[in-house]
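User: What would this chain look like folded?
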Amino acid sequence: MPEEIEQKPCPIADRSEFNYYNFPVTGGNIVPNKPNHVSISYLNMVDDAMWKIIEFIETSTTNVLYFCNAGKDRTGIVSALLLSRMNVDKEKIINDYLQSADNLKTMLQNFASQNSSVDINVITPHSSYMEEFLDNYTKLA
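Assistant: Here's the prediction, encoded as structure tokens.
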């Protein structure tokens, strides 16, 4: 999103050794206020803009590095969809997603402590969030 790019510009966007593309995830741009809304927000991300990202990655003829601001929700859904489309086992997809909980633990705790309106359980990846997303996504697909 333009305001996010303005607040936190990508450090590799202007580097000549990279081809930088910005593909915004347009669905589910609101941080859920309750843990049971997280998987719903993930489902909302799966729209036409998300499929453009997936198609770009799947048809790329070079290596692709994809990421978002925190690297857990939008990146997690892109990863889950790519892995799912390659018939990777659901448990492996969930475990991949949970790596971000370990990797981002300190950052998420600091963010929650500085933002009293944010529920740490909402912003911390839990297996149930991805499991519910995958279950509901496969029902819709």
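The chain has a mean pLDDT of 92. If you want, I can go into more detail on any region.
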